[in-house]
Amino acid sequence: MRFVRFGAVGAEKPGVYDANGDLRDLSGVLTDLSGAVLADLASIDVDALPRVEGNPRLGPPVAGVGKIVCVGLNYYDHAAEVGMELPTEPVIFMKATSAITGPHDPLVLPRGSVKTDWEAELGIVIGTAAKYVTEADALLHVAGYLLVNDVSERELQLERGGQWTKGKSCDTFAPIGPWLVTPDEVGDVQKLALTLKLNDEVMQSANTSGMIFSVAKAISYLSQMMTLHPGDIISTGTPAGVGGGMKPPRFLKVGDRLDLDIEKLGAQRQIVESD
After folding, report:
1. Helix H or strand E segment including 216
2. What predicted TM-score, i.e. pTM, was given to this entire model?
3. Domains of the chain
4. What's the pLDDT tens digit per position in 77-93?
């Protein structure tokens, strides 16, 4: 099943697509796609819901996100392109939830930024609380998956005294969606094609099979040190093809267009604007 939140910024309603691809309104059944309801999405009778007319804006498909936990350097080819050794354990940093935007909302460059970069990533949405879980049981705690653009300001991330979080958390730096897709529809999450284009030029083209640490490993690892709550998002890292890894480096400028896609999870488009 593919779940969305649709409507104007700050006034989104929960929705779901039926088998024919028609959008249905979930707001009469549940208040929002957040918290404990994420554990029971499969029980919803889609065909009984009213259809949504027109082509409304799609917002972030999950509300009330408690935390975004990111895994860095999690693709073999990305670690190679930035000249860093392969990690022996997942590299972890946080991304502010205030950075979350819809999948097609504008990407706004921070004032003075000249090193804003793109990172197409698979996102995991937690459905039931996970604490000290094993890899074997980790996927049982997943509500679904979504596409994340882990936008990064490289100067803030790498040249301003350390701490990746501050280069990852600017407003609009976490476009998510368009859909929250349930695990049954995704199938093998370690076999999904991923692409990112900048102004129609392919920058990233990879597969989630290239991860160093799998989805199950990431969930289990994080659950040993923090409880993962329903609605939390884990962003699982990006493959090669980021602007900062190019020679010479290539960064975003006003007017650029990013198109991202992950197989079965849908597509995003952002136009770059100035603050």
Report:
1. helix 215-223
2. 0.97
3. 2-59 (no CATH), 68-274 (3.90.850.10)
4. 888 888 888 899 999 99
